[in-house]
Design goal:
single chain; mainly alpha; 2 strands; flat
């Protein structure tokens, strides 16, 4: 049942992405309702698959591919929510394939991982906040990429994505809204982590902590620069991508090394 639900969700995500990509390639107005409808049908199936993979009889399985699948579900949910708020359905073209990939990796690629049997409430809060922060900031990074493409096409007097995206100023406001939400979640994740982790060295968390704090600092500087110096455009895009790159390296890089290379 879990496998069937996951495959059905991956198929729905893929159909939505292919439909949207075809419409954009032909420069046709996207059929937003159909694209979002297919994604919305995939979400509960994906959630069922994620829940079955993570919540196991012997504990929580937060292996790298299960986490990728969970992040994919959050990305799909955030992308649909944003598309309902503003006409940015094109952002699903990045979110839906990642969600589908996460499902398939979780279902069919084995990864050594010892399920967590005893977690304090503080540790559970830290894990949840970390995944939420990462997902929101990943959508912010995708928004920054769209903003960069939109700005470039505007300078070159090309239409392209300009026909289906909100005005540049609206896109910038959405970007900083996402960064602000992600920054708050990341701050809370760092605080709960510092309060619940006993030994950073024994738990192989030093490099993760350093990279996460570096990412936090990048986003803090960006938000400060936006407030006091009016930073926008290329500066905002670069800071967003640098911050997310550090977070990506800490979030997944450590799991790849520990689980897939060192088998810990």
């Amino acid at each position: 049942m879990n496998t069937l639900a996951g495959l059905a969700a991956a198929l729905l995500y893929s159909l939505a992405s292919l439909l949207l990509a075809r419409q954009l390639a032909r420069r046709e107005p996207p059929r937003t309702a159909l694209v979002l409808g297919l994604g919305a049908l995939a979400l509960p199936l994906h959630l069922f698959c994620v829940h079955a993979a993570i919540y196991q009889p012997d504990g929580l399985n937060l292996g790298i591919f299960n986490v990728i699948s969970l992040v994919g579900w959050l990305l799909g949910t955030l992308a649909i929510g944003m598309s309902l708020y503003q006409p940015v359905v094109s952002i699903t073209l990045g979110a839906f394939p990642l969600a589908a990939l996460g499902i398939l990796l979780s279902l069919f690629v084995p990864a050594p991982y010892a399920p967590l049997t005893t977690l304090s409430r503080g540790a559970e809060s830290h894990i949840l906040l970390s995944i939420l922060a990462y997902s929101v900031l990943m959508i912010a990074a995708a928004q920054a990429i769209l903003l960069a493409i939109q700005d470039r096409q505007l300078r070159q007097h090309k239409r392209g994505l300009l026909n289906i995206l909100p005005p540049l100023q609206t896109m910038e406001h959405m970007l900083f809204d996402l960064i602000a939400v992600g920054f708050v979640l990341l701050s809370l994740a760092i605080i709960t982590g510092l309060l619940t982790v006993n030994d950073f060295f024994a738990q192989h968390l030093v490099h993760i902590t350093v990279l996460t704090l570096a990412a936090w600092l990048v986003f803090a500087v960006l938000l400060g620069g936006r407030h006091w110096r009016g930073w926008r455009g290329t500066t905002a895009i670069r800071f967003t991508l640098w911050g997310f790159g550090l977070l990506l390296l800490g979030f997944y890089g450590s799991k790849v090394v520990l689980e897939l290379i060192l088998n810990r």
